[in-house]
């Protein structure tokens, strides 16, 4: 009973926040030309036009495939590298300055390099997503590996457990929360920087359509694409990432109870 009441309260709060946002948006649009700030109704009509268009699903699909490709590659490289750095102080000391460089260089600079190296292609977006997401995952996995209790590792060795068993039974439960935290952050950043990369170096995708609408001063379409992106991210966050996190860490919630 309490859970259903709290859920209804949360839904009511979200709807109230949405109503306040729409009212403020509508009032602001009355004070400006529509090409500067289109109102909610004009933006909704632009969103309907996109929905009935021929390229919407293609653009969403191509952007999502690029983000997913770069993210999966970043997950593989970042996880393996993070485990290696966490297991060896010598490797950590040697490669730490390089990691600082990766975290310092902005995504826009990586996008410029990618255009020079790969041209106007999907590889540009994949590369930018990879270079943005990989350091985040690597850092979190590295930090998680450093928190593994050395006594457990020695105990595993005393039982003559292999490297794979030690990794699966000792390291994996420890680093999983760190990995998931970094992965969620990396996916969110990767999704955003993919739009920057597509704006600069792509001939299709959501970022390309945003640039196209901006060049033609179709501000209502820019707002429509933006609303569509926000809705997609909310669906991914609430419909996939949060339930997955609850499923993976349900053992942790039980121990806290």
From TrEMBL:
GO cellular component, one term: plasma membrane
Sections of the chain in a coiled coil: none
Entry keyword set: Cell inner membrane, Cell membrane, Membrane, Transmembrane, Transmembrane helix, Transport
Membrane topology (UniProt): Multi-pass membrane protein
Signal peptide extent: none
GO BP annotations listed: transmembrane transport
Entries under CDD domains matching the protein: TM_PBP2
UniProt name for this protein: ABC transporter permease subunit
Organism field: Acerihabitans arboris
Organism ancestry: Bacteria, Pseudomonadati, Pseudomonadota, Gammaproteobacteria, Enterobacterales
């Amino acid at each position: 009973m309490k859970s259903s009441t709290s859920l209804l309260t949360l839904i009511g709060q979200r709807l109230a926040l949405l109503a306040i946002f729409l009212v403020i948006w509508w009032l602001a649009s009355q004070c400006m030309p529509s090409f500067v700030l289109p109102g909610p109704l004009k933006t909704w009509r632009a969103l309907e036009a996109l929905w009935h268009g021929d390229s919407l699903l293609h653009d969403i699909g191509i952007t999502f495939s690029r983000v997913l490709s770069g993210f999966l590659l970043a997950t593989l490289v970042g996880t393996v590298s993070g485990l290696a750095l966490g297991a060896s102080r010598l490797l950590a000391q040697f490669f730490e300055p390089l990691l600082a460089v990766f975290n310092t260089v902005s995504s826009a600079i990586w996008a410029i390099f990618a255009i020079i190296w790969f041209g106007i292609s999907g590889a540009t977006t994949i590369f930018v997503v990879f270079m943005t997401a990989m350091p985040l995952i690597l850092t979190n996995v590295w930090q998680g590996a450093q928190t593994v209790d050395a006594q457990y590792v020695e105990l595993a060795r005393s039982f003559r457990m292999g490297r794979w068993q030690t990794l699966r039974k000792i390291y994996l439960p420890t680093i999983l929360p760190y990995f998931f935290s970094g992965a969620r952050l990396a996916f969110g950043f990767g999704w955003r920087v993919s739009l920057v990369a597509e704006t600069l170096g792509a001939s299709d995708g959501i970022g390309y359509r945003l640039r196209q609408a901006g060049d033609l001063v179709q501000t209502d379409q820019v707002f429509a694409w933006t609303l569509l992106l926000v809705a997609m991210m909310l669906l991914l966050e609430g419909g996939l990432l949060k339930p997955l996190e609850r499923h993976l860490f349900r053992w942790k919630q039980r121990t806290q109870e």
